[in-house]
Specification:
The chain has 120 residues and is mainly beta. The chain has no helices and 11 strands. It is globular.
Length: 120
């Protein structure tokens, strides 16, 4: 059974930083893309960043230059370093996984989410 478990969310002031982590288990994640999505209150879930098994990452325009995604293939983990946080970054952040190199395709596995709140 595939499990994705996020951690690292919390409350931070605008301009601050947080690091989210996601531990994946239940299978080998070679050739899987790992991504981060977020959903703010009253809004649809949106793409934040994704990273393939090997190759270049992709970011939403709203987070480029502020967020960095990374993965440790040996440990089946993916992280999202978030700097220069803004109140509009407030959302529940979800880790997700999908087979293949298409970072923008449909994701098959999802974590339970972790709350990030940025105060102004």
């Amino acid at each position: 059974q595939v499990q994705l478990v996020e951690s690292g969310g919390g409350l931070v002031q605008a301009g601050g930083s947080l690091r989210l982590s996601c531990a994946a288990s239940g299978r080998t994640f070679s050739n899987y893309a790992l991504g981060w999505f977020r959903q703010a209150p009253g809004k649809e879930r949106e793409f934040v960043a994704a990273i393939p098994w090997s190759g270049s990452s992709r970011y939403a325009d709203s987070v480029k230059g502020r967020f960095t995604i990374s993965r440790d293939n040996a440990k089946n983990t993916v992280a999202l370093q978030m700097n220069s946080l803004k109140p509009e970054d407030t959302a529940v952040y979800y880790c997700a996984a999908r087979w293949g190199a298409d970072l923008m395709g449909k994701y098959d596995y999802w974590g339970q989410g972790t709350q990030v709140t940025v105060s102004s």
